[in-house]
Specification:
Elements lengths: L2 H6 E8 L5 H11 L22 H13 L2 E6 L2 E6 L8 H8 L4 E7 L6 H13 L3 E6 L8 H12 L2 E4 L1 E4 L7 E4 L4 E4 L10 E4 L7 H6 L1 H18 L4 H5 L3 E6 L8 H11 L6 E2 L4 E2 L7 E9 L8 E9 L1 E3 L4 E3 L4 E3 L5 E4 L2 E4 L2 E3 L3 E6 L8 E3 L16 E7 L5 H13 L4 E5 L4 E6 L3 H14 L3 E5 L4 E6 L2 H10 L4 E3 L5 E5 L2 H10 L4 E3 L8
Parallel strand pairs: 1-3, 1-4, 4-5, 5-11, 6-11
Antiparallel strand pairs: 2-3, 7-8, 8-9, 9-10, 12-13, 14-15, 14-23, 15-22, 16-21, 17-18, 17-23, 19-20, 24-26, 24-27, 25-26, 28-30, 28-31, 29-30
The structure holds guanosine-5',3'-tetraphosphate.
């Protein structure tokens, strides 16, 4: 069912190492999609280094990231859903989870820097999930690396085959444009930040004599040699190899100069996958199934002070999601209903009546949702593969205002539901340890606890190396927990966790209890 709706949807994320040009490219997509009239309308949601201690800045930027979390626009008969991801590395978890809700990605690479840290990590997640990737090599108006070297670097470092669909003619100040390999045409470069069409010149392949006039003899000669080499090495591209995530098509351009955007966007809507099936603990769910299913991949505090509730982002996986219809919240085993679900059209939020596979719906939440929660029409299942990460930094939460204990308790429970940090509680005494992947989270937590919940607190460093979830024979785990009782705490689901002080202590535990697996991540749903 709903084939025609599903075949229109393209749900994807633009990912990059910070500063490669993700925000600029997103903006240019909206510009080309007719959603904004001028460049500069989309602000970066990245939290800059200098802002790390500037709380107002964090708040402001969080606000922007809510507003631009999902951008939907129609383009050439399709509905394009761009899911935004935070650039800052301390919020990488948020990015990885968002990647569970997309069907493909566009990876932006800075031609000067090539493959960078975050590029590698993000691609690892895409490889794990077999997400189809298109690569956009950006900033061709700058003197960058040799394009052949860049392709080699992508293949070697990202473990994926690449296939250029456009080819640059020089770079930096001498950048002349790109040759479009499939259509055998030239897209001539002109530094321009506002135009919305490319100057495409159809030529008769690289042998066409007009090439020499258009780009100069030397450039034409070099292009002929390059294209011969490319044809020899890469041959024809096969769409199925892209869809199975074995081959990544590559484009060259300059987002800032609106150059190469049109061909990227047109190719994207043409070849990118429609909503794909997804795994649950019971079975594979197909987008065309008549019954609705979906999962929560992101939770965000509502910044509007008049509404203290939160926004849960639901990815629809199958069927039709409808306003005011009751659905089953499978973890809580209760019925839930939404009177004001909304979609994210351009820069506004609009109450929606129905959504289909591939769509993202914003749900007002009063504390019912955790990341990974599943909604269905009754079937008791849970979507799998939403990653949870091994916390790297641990601190104890110290209450500074005993009169506000309740507020602090509520705040820390709710904020950790958002996936910002992991919470471990030790009994007796209810000591609370918080684990994160980055420093910035503690600042954000402290600030939000005070501003949103009126609770004053401090985070004190604790010597904890890793939090380990234990899997193994019950008697062994019971024995171990008795032996290390001072280092056992409980996660939010009540599962016992061993807080190992050092790598050495963890190794000792592994040696002493070989039948217990000490896992440093607790997949929200393993898969
Ligand atoms: P990000 O979201 O991936 O972090 O990157 P963003 O788009 O914010 O771009 C990072 C910087 O790179 C910005 O400059 C942006 O203008 C610049 N940039 C993006 N695309 C191109 C391009 O094609 N060519 C060149 N030369 N630069 C490009 P900035 O100075 O950090 O910010 P701004 O003051 O220009 O906004």
């Amino acid at each position: 069912m709903y084939e025609s709706e599903i075949s229109q949807r393209k749900t994807f994320a633009i990912i990059s190492h910070p500063d490669a040009g993700k925000t600029t490219l997103t903006e240019k997509f909206l510009l080309f999609g007719g959603q904004i009239q001028t460049a500069g309308a989309v602000k970066s949601n990245k939290i800059t280094k200098t802002a790390a201690s500037d709380f107002m800045e964090i708040e402001k930027q969080r606000g922007i990231s809510v507003a631009t979390s999902v951008m939907t626009f129609p383009y050439k008969g399709k509905w394009v859903n761009i899911l935004d991801t935070p650039g800052h590395k301390d919020f990488a978890e948020d990015t990885y989870r968002t990647l569970t809700a997309v069907d493909s990605v566009i990876l932006v690479i800075d031609c000067v820097k090539g493959v960078e840290d975050q590029t590698r990590r993000l691609m690892e997640v895409c490889r794990m999930r077999n997400t189809p990737v298109i690569v956009f090599i950006n900033k061709m108006d700058r003197d960058g690396k040799d394009p052949f070297d860049l392709l080699d670097e992508l293949e070697n470092e990202l473990n994926i085959q690449v296939h250029p669909l456009s080819w640059p003619i020089n770079g930096g100040r001498d950048f002349k444009g790109v040759y479009l390999l499939p259509s055998k045409s030239l897209n001539l470069f002109e530094s321009n930040k506002t135009k919305k069409t490319d100057d495409i010149v159809k030529v008769n392949g690289v042998e066409d004599e007009r090439l020499d006039q258009l780009i100069g003899d030397n450039n034409a000669k070099k292009l002929r040699e390059d294209v011969e080499l490319i044809d020899g090495v890469y041959g024809d591209i096969n769409k199925d190899d892209y869809l199975s995530a074995d081959v990544a098509p590559v484009f060259f351009g300059s987002a800032l100069n609106n150059f190469g955007i049109q061909e990227l966007l047109d190719t994207f809507v043409y070849i990118a996958p429609n909503p794909l099936s997804r795994h649950t603990d019971l079975r594979e769910v197909e987008p065309t199934e008549s019954k609705f299913t979906g999962f929560i991949f992101k939770i965000h505090a509502n910044l509007d002070p008049r509404h203290r509730d939160r926004i849960a982002f639901l990815r629809v996986c199958s069927g039709k999601f409808e306003r005011n219809k009751g659905y089953k919240h499978t973890r809580l085993e209760k019925q839930v209903k939404f009177s004001n679900p909304y979609t994210f059209l351009a820069d506004s939020k609009e109450v929606m009546e129905a959504a289909y596979a591939g769509d993202v719906v914003g749900l007002y939440d009063t504390g019912n949702f955790k990341i990974g929660d599943t909604l269905t029409e009754g079937e008791k299942m849970i979507f799998k593969g939403i990653p949870s990460f091994s916390p790297e930094i641990f601190r104890e939460l110290i209450n500074l205002d005993p009169m506000k204990s309740k507020q602090l308790e509520k705040g820390i429970q709710q904020l950790t539901d958002e996936g910002l940090a992991s919470l471990f509680t030790q009994e007796p005494g209810s000591r609370k340890f918080v684990g994160t992947v980055g420093e910035l989270q503690f600042e954000v937590l402290q600030y939000r606890l005070e501003n949103e919940y009126g609770a004053k607190c401090r985070f004190e460093p604790r010597a904890i190396h890793k939090a380990c979830w234990m899997i193994g024979p019950k008697d062994q785990i019971d024995d171990f927990m008795k032996y290390r009782q001072n280092n056992i705490a409980y996660d939010k689901d009540g599962k016992p966790v061993f807080l190992a002080e050092t790598a050495y202590i963890l190794r000792m535990a592994i040696d002493k209890y070989p039948d217990i697996a000490f896992n440093t991540t607790n997949e929200i749903q393993a898969g």
